[in-house]
Design goal:
The structure is a homodimer. With about 190 residues, chain A is mainly alpha-helical. Chain A folds into two domains: about 1-55, Arc Repressor Mutant, subunit A; about 60-190, Orthogonal Bundle (Tetracycline Repressor, domain 2). Chain A is about 75% helix and about 0% strand. Chain A contains nine helices and no strands. In chain A, helix 1 (about 1-30) crosses helix 4 (about 55-80), helix 4 runs antiparallel to helix 5 and helix 8 (about 150-170) packs antiparallel against helix 9 (about 180-190). The radius of gyration of chain A is 19 Å and the shape is elongated. At the A-B interface, helix 8 and helix 9 of A face helix 8 and helix 9 of B. Chain A binds a DNA duplex (30 and 30 nucleotides) through helix 1 and helix 3.
Chain lengths: ~190, ~190
DNA sequence: ACATGAATCCTAGCATCGCTAGACAAGCAA
DNA sequence: TTGCTTGTCTAGCGATGCTAGGATTCATGT
């Protein structure tokens, strides 16, 4: 049995290597540069090996996305738990979210921009995605205001952050005023 | 001279045909289906003809985007001018914007999701893009609130709409609650 | 120790993509 | 009619995602 277990470990290890390499390559040169050939070469295996782990490129993007969702959730929770009061928690959440998107553009793309073949807002949504939304909900639910459904408020706030993140990264918004925009958004949307 | 003029007219006509066909194909089957071969076949010319009008596929996407920007601006202006009072104008603007994105997903993608090789928020930004932003600013500037720069407020509001539009279309948000989300957004962000 | 069979991996190739070079034809000027 | 420009097409390049089929390795049973 030990032999099989070792092989299984090695296989899992190689899968992590694939995902990590794809992510690294995407952050360095963009997702367009993440071709199956380049990826295979970097992990020092042939192309078909990728397809013994993932159905195709989409699933690799999806794997990076799930990894990113977990990190985003953790970052948000760390930031909010270190802040005092609902207003400050929400501000910290917003800054952390936008910071994550700015620092990990490829991962953010994998999560929300590209097709990673993941289901959202459904029964079979992967756990990390649900949990990331839950992390937002924990702090945002506090400031939804009377008579406003916390989940719906979280969706709206999240959408606003997503819009700021993508438009900024696409060059549609100048990054200098980023902080001012966050202040405005938090002041208006969050009910103390 | 008349011969040259006729040729020029025909050339311009063919260029419109290319853009219209690309848009139609994109709306029908998505931008992935808009390949230079398929596009060439539909306009009943060979591939290289496309490259005598546009530098490449990117520029074709850009042309569709500009067309869309003009339509979006017109739709927003029509909706806002028909509404009474700042609050209602902004609500109409939001609904119209999201409706446009939902009804013309391919055009919206060309505008804000894909790389059409267009410059944004800069000196050499094409006129239709500037004008679309101006159309938003006209109504949103009214409800920015004291001491808040109208342009910055417009950016934030626009980003929120953009987030709602993209997340809804990507299946990240369920469309049933769309109207409720718009109400919430307008109520909180707009200062009467 | 050795043969067997399964698991594992790679070479080679397919269809398709965006894009371009070079041949060919059509139409204008002399 | 003869040249020349202008326009268009055929054919092809390199690169993409993905896959079939052969080769190799390796654990296993005798």
């Amino acid at each position: 049995m030990s032999v099989q277990e070792r092989k299984q470990r090695e296989r899992a290890e190689r899968e992590r290597l694939i995902v990590a390499t794809a992510r690294e390559l995407a952050e360095q040169q963009g997702w367009d540069a993440v071709t199956t050939r380049r990826l295979a070469e970097r992990i020092e295996y042939s192309q078909p090996v990728l397809y013994s782990h993932f159905r195709g490129k989409r699933e690799i993007i999806g794997a990076v996305a799930l990894e990113g969702a977990a990190e985003l959730a953790a970052a948000v929770r760390a930031a909010t738990s270190a802040a005092d009061g609902p207003r400050e928690r929400v501000a910290a959440l917003a800054r952390t979210y936008l910071d994550f998107a700015a620092r990990n553009p490829a991962v953010y793309d994998a999560l929300f921009q590209l097709d990673g073949g993941l289901a959202y807002a459904q029964e079979d949504t992967p756990e990390p995605l649900k949990d990331a939304f839950a992390a937002l909900l924990e702090s945002l639910g506090e400031v939804a205001g009377d008579g406003v459904h916390p989940g719906l408020f979280t969706e709206v706030f999240w959408a606003s952050l997503h819009g700021l993140a993508t438009l900024t990264r696409a060059g549609r918004l100048l990054p200098e005023e980023a902080e001012t925009r966050v202040e405005l958004l938090v002041d208006r949307l969050a009910v103390a």
